Amino acid sequence: MATTIAPVATIALPNPSRVLRTSWCPDKDLLVMLSRFAQQEKLSLWKMSGSKKWEVDLPGNAEYKVDQIVDIAWSPDVQSIAVVSNPGLITIHSIQNGSVERAIPIPGRRFRVTGVWWFREQKKVTKNRLPEVFKRGENTVWPFDLQLISLIDVNPIQDETKPLTSNDLFAFNGARNRPAQAPKVPPVITTWPSLPTDLVAASIASNKPDAQQSFPEAEDEADDTNVNSILAVSDSLGNVHLFLEGSYPLGNVRLGAEVTPRSLYKLRESLFLHPGPASDSSSPAVALQPSIFKLPYLTGRHYRDVARVSSAARELVWYAMRVVKEMRAAWFGSDTNAGARDLGQKWVNALEQRQRNEFGQEEPYALLDLTCLLTTGRTSEGVLDYLGSGEHMSERSIQKWETTMVEALTRLRDFSEKRVAPACQRLRLLLQEVQGWAALPQYAACNFTVEEIDSCLDMTARAIVSSAWLAATARKELIRFKEFMKWLRYEITRVNAADHHQPRPQHDILEVNEYLTSGLVVSQIDKWFIGPAPRFTPESLGVPQNTNISLALRKARAALNLWDQTVHDVSSPRSPLARGGGGGKPKANRIITRYPETGRETPRPRAH
């Protein structure tokens, strides 16, 4: 009697497609299909009812071009899909929209990928366990977490790895092709060993809103099913590459030359596999006796602790790099926006050009003329004409200049003080944790180098101090720039005002002079971004060089002994200013105290 199987659904495919042995989702009515169009591999997710949820092109670049998808594996929580392709590349896709969560190139170019498996952690079931109320959790308390939780989260920053497009903003929700975009991440970050992104572990606040769930089946709360899971990828040279939680590389297991596992199973720290010939033309027969590999580190916490530190350090370094990029764009400008740094130079160039073209000065020196105007109130005719012209010195142009500079300097001050410095401080905490691990025998297999750890600690300490220097320099320059704008408005009003309506100066002449000499054209802030590292003393940051109390007291006594005593007694002043006559105030607010036992005259400040 013949039996027939009724089809669940019939799907009409526009292009030739194929399914793999692992295409069906373990616990949802979802199916992954592979197709090829115009020499481009495509990955699509379908509902078993016949509707397509999404379709994406596999990413590729000049270095890693995807030729063919070999195999796929579902994550233990069934929220991600691991896709392996030749040449060796692993891409982890979200089942929500197919976007690439991370791409991991497998080192080496002389092999072919043959398969992929993703195993969840299998914990031992022990009898006579303590009740749940007495348990502190499955994981050991980590000192690093306690240190970071006590600190304030670092401010979030825009994520550049997944920029929004017009398709994402304006297209209707539904089936559409979504070409995968190459993330704008430097190679040092993409090749950094790390676990899946976890901003909380790095003490970085997230600025992403909760993503809308595309499937009702995925609306449950996030679980820890993927924690300590192992992604295994086999190649044609007899290697099995292992990745913790589908991301952090743990190394590879060597099977033998020209063999590859036909089946693979993991039970706690053991790997069971049946090796077979790697070539497709060879006999597919395999031995019934499996090969067993013991990997004790899979069940310990030490490698996961190292992976968590590496992941948090990667997030902090990438965060600091993006913040510095924003600071540089605000100061020097970018491809789309002009920077605040060039505004002063452009203003001076326009002044010198006017002096050269309209007043016949062959070699004009605007800074000298401006300094002369500041100190004496007199300057050349070209400067006065430039200040009185409405073309360059209108209130609107000055307001735009002031707004741009104030915003840029405020951003430099706040970002260096509240973003870069805290990120470097957290990174130093991580390195100190690793420094402690390097002295423990449990972490000997990690091959930590004490000299490299000390070098990294030294660099993070210098980065913290450099960030403090930038914040102090930006704060000073902001004050000087505001004084310069007060003086500029004063001179413009004085040029255009009548003789009997002269304005009163409200600027600080010393601060304006400092900005003219080291801010208007050449700024100290430039040294932070270009050239060698800036040199400065701790005193410039408000840090005393010597904290020895005895030495400080000796310096204070020496200063008192060298006190200038050539002052006049208030009881018999020699000038009207000292007496307060003529409507003026006394020149000095000090009086002389006579000590009869010594006959010395010691000045002391008068109480206000």
Automatic annotation (TrEMBL):
Residue stretches making up the Anaphase-promoting complex subunit 4-like WD40 domain: 23-106
Regions that span the bilayer: none
GO cellular component terms, semicolon-separated: anaphase-promoting complex; nuclear periphery
Compositionally biased residues, Basic and acidic residues: 597-608
Keyword line: Cell cycle, Cell division, Mitosis, Ubl conjugation pathway
PANTHER family linked: ANAPHASE PROMOTING COMPLEX SUBUNIT 4 APC4 (PTHR13260), ANAPHASE-PROMOTING COMPLEX SUBUNIT 4 (PTHR13260:SF0)
Protein name: Anaphase-promoting complex subunit 4
